[in-house]
Amino acid sequence: MLPRTEEVMGGQGNWDKVPWRKSRRSGSEDQGGNCVAVAASASYAAIRDTNDPCRATIVLPKSALRGVLDEIKNGVFDLR
C-alpha cells in the first residue's frame, strides 16, 4: 500500500512546496508538451502530467521510480 501524501511530506498534505522537474526535451506547452514532471522528497517520488498538474499525482517509493520510468519509456502504459 502506498503512503498517504501527508505521511510522505511530513504533514504538509501536498506536493506544492516541492520543486518539480521535467525534461528540457519535452517541448513547450504550445507544441503539445507531452511530458510528465517529477518531484522527490527524502524517500518518495511523485509524477504528474505537465499539461494538467491538478489531476492525480502518482506517489511511489524512490526505489521504484527507475522501474516505472523504464516502463513508461517502453510504452507499457500506452493506450492501444
TrEMBL record:
Sequence segments annotated as region (Disordered): 1-32
InterPro entries, sorted: DUF397 (IPR007278)
Source domain of life: Bacteria
Segments forming domain DUF397: 19-73
Protein name in UniProt: DUF397 domain-containing protein
Organism whose genome encodes this protein: Actinomadura luteofluorescens
